[in-house]
Specification:
Elements (H helix, E strand, L loop, with lengths): L2 H9 L1 E5 L3 H13 L3 E5 L24 H10 L6 E4 L5 H5 L3 E4 L5 H13 L1 E5 L5 E5 L3 E8 L2 E7 L4 E3 L9 E7 L6 E5 L14 E5 L2 E2 L16 E2 L10 E3 L9 E3 L2 E5 L3 E3 L4 H6 L20 H19 L8 H21 L16 H9 L6 H17 L9 E6 L22 H7 L1 H8 L2 E5 L3 H13 L8 E5 L24 H10 L16 E4 L14 H5 L3 E4 L4 H14 L3 E7 L2 E7 L21 H6 L4 H28 L8
Helix pairs in contact: 2-10, 7-8, 7-9, 8-9, 11-12, 13-14
Length: about 675
Amino acid sequence: LGAETTKFLREARIVIVGLRGAGVETAKNCLLQGVGHLTLYDPKLCVEADRGANFFIGEQDVGQPRDRVCAPRLKELNPDAVVQVAEALDEDLIGSCTCVVFTDGVNRNELVKWNAFCRSRTTTIIDERGVHMEVPAPVSFVWAVCAGLCLSIFVDHRDSFEVRDADGERPVVRLVESISREARGLVRYAVPDGVPATSPPIDSLYAFSDVTGCNGDAMGGSSLNDCAPFPFTSLKGDPANSFRIGDTLSLSPYESGGLITERKRPKTLKFRSLGERLVAPGSPFGDDGLPMTDYTFSGLEAQVHAGLVGVMEFEATQKRLPNANDEQDAEAVLNAAKTYASACKVLNTATADGAKALDVSIDDRVVRAYARHASIELQPVATFCGGVVAQEVVKRSGKYTPIDGFAHFAFLEAMPDPPPPLGDRAPRGDRYDDLASVFGRTFVEKLGNLNYFLVGSGALGCEFVKNFALCGVCCGPRGQLTIADADRIELSNLTRQFLFREHNVGQSKALAAAAMATDPGSRTRAPPMNTSLKVTCHEQYVGPATEAEPFTDAFWESLDGVCNALDNMEARFYVDKICVKFEKSLLESGTMGTSGNVDPIVPHKTKTYREGGNAAEGQGVPMCTLRNFPHLIDHCIEWARDKFAELFEKPQRRVNKFCAEPQVTLAE
């Protein structure tokens, strides 16, 4: 993230309203990213269904306020952060924060009110003459809604927000090959070995360094190295890997060497209010705000928006969300969505700043599906939501480009067709009610009786273990989850592998992850995620050396599927080969910085992992890679930093904390 963003997060004051699945996932990710001050507000009492999405709510917590249950457990994820519970949701609380995140509720009047307050927030300063002045004090506003298999996120950073680094990528560096002497000098460059051969971004500036030759005063400096950065421009017919700069005729000839280095150009974004965006969210086929998330070009994003507005209208009149699988309520939401769409067509004019009202023909099937599950929060969707929303909080620092208004996601292809019988979807008052409301109890039971293999229990592995436990995967009478990971927990793992705490450093990742899910012990306040989860752990790598024992042919044949959570290509290819041999489905995934991929591989239906193309190796430096395959200078540096923190920073921090606490006598 860089020093500037890290400093921002450490000083940021974040408020999260709502602590169901999406709220607690957002809070978890914010704390792991380094947010220094987190305030929680959700006085609603925990119910049994919450245990299907919130990993910090246990059986004994039912009936207790969500925020007070979650606060001490979230604090363990980042002991240096201040985590507190708000007594009330008022202007003093919202006005004092950097960013407020709403994750529970679709009350239109309430949300529009708080958004307007955030946009109008000012503070008083005293200038050098002693004059009191009112200046803008921006409070960023984020709102997320999980509605079954649909998800909506709204972001507003007010009328003027500066993005200093639009993509967060490392600055582009290229080797200078030649510089011509002409009215618009042509710079030809080469791509260094090991660097992707992509063109530099055209909206950035580029500075020269280490160029020999090209001296003179015509360009405002004693040499090209001293000039201000140049924009990336070209003329028709220019060769590849080149760009133009100013007049170089008065410079001495280019001799040798030199680098061009990207200098990112800040840009200012203008956001619109929630009230405006509800009417004019933009189009997924344009550049006016609504991003395309369904790449079948179906316009599904606009249908989800209409469904959301229909649910908000239903809530405004009925003072509740639509009941799950209630066709009468779904019909009412559909009618409200159609009324909204008709009003947008009648309006059919641009707002003051050019945003047009939504233009959509309602798809009854999509909006009804949205309405049936508007009150349902599915744990996998909540997990995805928490990742996206936490990254939007990071973007408040000015790094990366934020969502401009709404972003809608729909995973309706996962919905059973035809739906299970209504009786199979009826609630039973347990943790799986929400899951069963969409997929049915028969499906939940199938999940529970899976015999599944998780290869790796690092950052992705921790998430999978949590997701499996909350969704009941391998939690049935015949279920079995096998985890294989030979790695031990390192101190640096704690910033992204949320199942582990400081006391776990040095322990087996597989055993610690399994224990955290089923029986955390007395050294953490976190409850077991699901005591019914049946886990077998192997502290061994999966590869040719372990084919005789324990990963025999009989073991692979007994599996229902395999999930990879690996960090190197060699192991991925091996597991892929074995899954092909035994005709097992494989869920493959990986991360690289802020990017990620997922690839479901099904025998006889999809390409294998190897056939699908070799995924790029990650640019991060996992500790398991450092210990087993160190080969770059970056690995040595990262290893040294981790050891320094382990030997010097953490012990000193513990001493400081101990000294700051009131001491008691033996008698006391």
